[in-house]
């Protein structure tokens, strides 16, 4: 995928993110070039069931739910909308699988891999860092592992995914056009943990 898109949206901020990390407390990094495919389909249709079978995980049907397989995460974004996230280079295969399962039924499958990048924030101070710019209750009882939400972080629209509530570890899906702004905000907000 790097060949298709050139450098990642945060290539110029990789050093800033690394320098903002604090061993044992906070780690900031980009997870670049993941496959991201947007899916819209009626969740009660036969196609939704076929899609679940084809990808190895039924489509989540509750707000904020995330389903996982070994190589895929399925994020609930709306009553008939999901974001499927897979490893680099898998978008075309994933699209093909989804389109085959969709068949002639009404729905859409769109490769949005170039639309967003992911910033990973992990470590004991990650929840505190995110709370500085996010109104969500990020306590592990309220925002547990394998939950996601569309929200604002430092006034940037993001999809926030809790990968591990115990560590904790989060993925922030941010539009490529806002990625540098968000990386700079995270670095600035993390400054207190470096002292």
TrEMBL record:
It holds the Pfam family SoxG. InterPro entries: SoxG, TrmE/GcvT-like. Gene3D superfamilies: Heterotetrameric sarcosine oxidase (3.30.70.1520), Probable tRNA modification gtpase trme, domain 1 (3.30.1360.120). This is Sarcosine oxidase subunit gamma.
């Amino acid at each position: 995928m790097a060949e298709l898109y050139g450098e990642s949206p945060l290539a110029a901020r990789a050093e800033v993110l690394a320098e903002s990390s604090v061993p044992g407390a906070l780690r900031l990094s980009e997870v670049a070039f993941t496959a991201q495919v947007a899916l819209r389909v009626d969740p009660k249709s036969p196609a939704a069931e076929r899609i679940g079978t084809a990808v190895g995980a039924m489509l989540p049907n509750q707000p904020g739910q995330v389903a996982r397989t070994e190589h895929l995460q399925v994020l609930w974004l709306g009553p008939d909308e999901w974001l499927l996230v897979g490893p680099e280079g898998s978008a075309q295969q994933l699209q093909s699988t989804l389109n085959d399962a969709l068949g002639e039924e009404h729905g859409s499958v769109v490769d949005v891999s170039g639309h967003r990048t992911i910033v990973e924030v992990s470590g004991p101070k990650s929840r505190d860092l995110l709370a500085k710019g996010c109104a969500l209750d990020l306590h592990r009882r309220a925002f547990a592992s394998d939950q996601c939400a569309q929200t604002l972080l430092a006034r940037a629209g993001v999809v926030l995914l809790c990968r591990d509530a115990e560590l904790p570890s989060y993925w922030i899906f941010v539009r490529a056009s806002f990625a540098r702004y968000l990386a700079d905000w995270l670095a600035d907000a993390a400054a207190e943990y470096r002292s």
